[in-house]
């Protein structure tokens, strides 16, 4: 299988974000978004997905965290899509049911070439650190559309908002790792359409 890395950059009047991801890494990462809790979530995603990840984001945090979090999702999704190439020889689907203390999170992904997000998580606080909890959905929405993948995320049970958010990011990392893994029995894209 070829070296599967992707690097993308997005510059707007609101943000300047660059992301590099290696899908065949070991979880090493360098992440700086200016939003400490968001960095912690992306670290969990990378470590548990075994992705080498570099994220550098400069955003208008004097306004709020919205543009930085959303645009990071856009650029991460673009980098994932670039790293996947033609998706030949991968499993395509991945899922994880991840426990974190009292919390149980579900993530399922399909690298289908069709974007869709189903998000079911009710946070009971408006923010975690400097990250607005409503931005967690917006981040995953941006990833799903720019990476052209289905993402289903659901909190099955949970009380602690930190645990709920962290479980979602870790479950996404684990599910994406499974979906991007090689399937030795095929050497083409796993679809009846001929391409994903």
Notable traits:
single chain; four-stranded mixed beta sheet; about 200 residues; about 35% helix; globular; alpha+beta
Note down, in words, how this protein is organized:
The protein has 196 residues and is of the alpha+beta class. It has four helices and ten strands; from the N terminus they run E-E-E-H-E-H-E-E-E-E-E-H-E-H. The protein has helices spanning 36-49, 66-84, 134-147, 161-180, and strands at 5-11, 15-22, 29-32, 52-59, 93-100, 103-110, 116-120, 127-128, 131-132, 150-157. The strands form three sheets. A four-stranded mixed beta sheet has the order 1-2-4-3, with helices on one face. Helix 1 packs parallel to helix 4 (161-180). It is globular, with a radius of gyration of 16 Å. The protein starts with a strand and ends in a 16-residue tail after the last helix. The model has no long low-confidence stretch (mean pLDDT 97).
Query: Would you tell me the overall average pLDDT?
Result: 97
Number of helices: 4
Q: In what order do the strands lie side by side in the largest sheet?
A: 1-2-4-3
Main sheet makeup: 4 strands, mixed
N-to-C CA distance: 17 Å
Radius of gyration: 16 Å
Name the beta content range. Answer: 25-35%
**Would you identify the regions where 5 or more consecutive residues have pLDDT less than 50?**
none
The level of helicity is 25-40%
Shape: globular
> What is the string of SSEs from the N terminus onward?
EEEHEHEEEEEHEH
**How many E-type strands?**
10
SSE class? alpha+beta
Summary of the model, kept short:
The protein is an alpha+beta fold and 196 residues long.
